[in-house]
Structure prediction request, 537 residues.
Amino acid sequence: MNQDSTKISLTNRSKVVSNKKMTLLERFYLPAIFKGMIITFSHFFKKEVTIQYPEEKRKFSDIYRGLHVLKLDDEGRERCTACGLCALSCPAEAITMIAAERKEDEKDLYREEKYAAVYEINMLRCIFCGDCESACPKEAIFLTDRLVPSEYKRDKFIYGKDVLVEKKNARVDVSKRQTPEVLEFKKDKSKLHNK
Amino acid sequence: MDIHFILYKLILAAAILLLSLVIAMYATLFERKIAGFFQDRLGPNRAGTFGLLQPVADGVKLFFKEEFMPANADKVLYILGPSLTMLVALLASAVIPWGGTLMIGGHEYALQVADVNIGVLYVFAVISIGVYGVMIGGWASNNKYALMGAVRAASQMISYELAMSMSIVTIVMTSGSLSLKDIVAQQHGMNWNVFTQPIGFVVFLICAFAETNRSPFDLPECETELIGGYHTEYSSMKLGFYLFAEYINIFISSAMISSLYFGGYNFPFMNDLGLSHNMVTILGTVALFAKISFFGFVFMWVRWTLPRFRYDQLMRFGWKGLMPWAMANMILTGFFHLLFKK
Prediction:
């Protein structure tokens, strides 16, 4: 360790260790024990930090990255066009998809001519980095402040479109993730991403 | 000995037995709650209001656990271990005066199961058997960790019993009686022994921690070194007995501390309030239980404050720290007693 490290202190509470001989009073230990007991007793009256989970939930950050959602557009059509950029950008290789061509009578279901017939995210592989969201040119996939619930079987963690696509009558709000920086970036139409 | 007397003693003994068991049961909850508060947590609060059913749930859990016995364990001793610990823990409550006397229908009933004239000695005799429960259990488990824990428990208890009994000898010297009833009665008013025997009290308190195997002296069941210590191989209700006995021991130790040093059922101005005899007795019992609860709390308070001793520190502290103090206290008290009291 270099000598300067003793001078730097994050909390100003660090004490330099020394091997000095203890005084008689210190060798009785009792004053130190009482001091310690007072410290523990003072914690008796401090606010408990416990969050009583099912009733009470921890407040997440506005840009929390949890369970993904595949967005529908305003008319209720799936935005995803199965371009595969999310799967490509995924560092954990958690996303797989099978693309299909839209039929004539499916125009109210899918926005683009191509769509994802199968779209799966393995939640055990996913590291919730949000790269899929950044990569998506169609604003189709977002991470939300919902949690992935626990399961007993591993294969239950492979989420298909039945879970990921938002329901028409129960839209998932992702507006909080649109921070000013994100909105600013989206205005810049010179970027290929935003065309 | 008439049937009347036997019935009264039986009821009293049963009541105290039941009370110690219930108190030990709720002491486990109390401990966990206190641990929670000390660590800015809430403690158990799911089973019943404030977690009041938690001890019941724990008990049920222990009952339904697998009754496991190691293949090469000594079967008789293996069962004898926890039974002995439990038995001994409960025995000591017999001589503690839980209150004054109650007057019912012209008869005077003392709230003490047995006023043995060697009460203090009886308690010590019984407590020293307690080490056999641990020793036998650790030996019979046929497991090196259990044996290590048992050896530690034995040497620790023997070491600390010396200093403990010396501080008791001092009390016996000043009060001139071995009967707990007399010792308590002599502390009437605010004439508590703790004021005349502060050193003795501190020594006794520390030794009580060591005798009950409580932190910071819980080396016999030190998880970090010995898995579970002497009860490594125990499961189900046999383990429950060991854990339960610890809390009964805390209760009894607190009762002993209260009786020997804090006036037992005596409370200030107990005869100046103009209350009836029975009322004073009941209030006295309440006062005793308040004292016991306080010391029970101190036991837990210390546990969640101090880290565990190292084994050599423990031995050095017992022999080179407490012993000389207890001995000096005893000799000085003897001198003062001889020169000034008579």
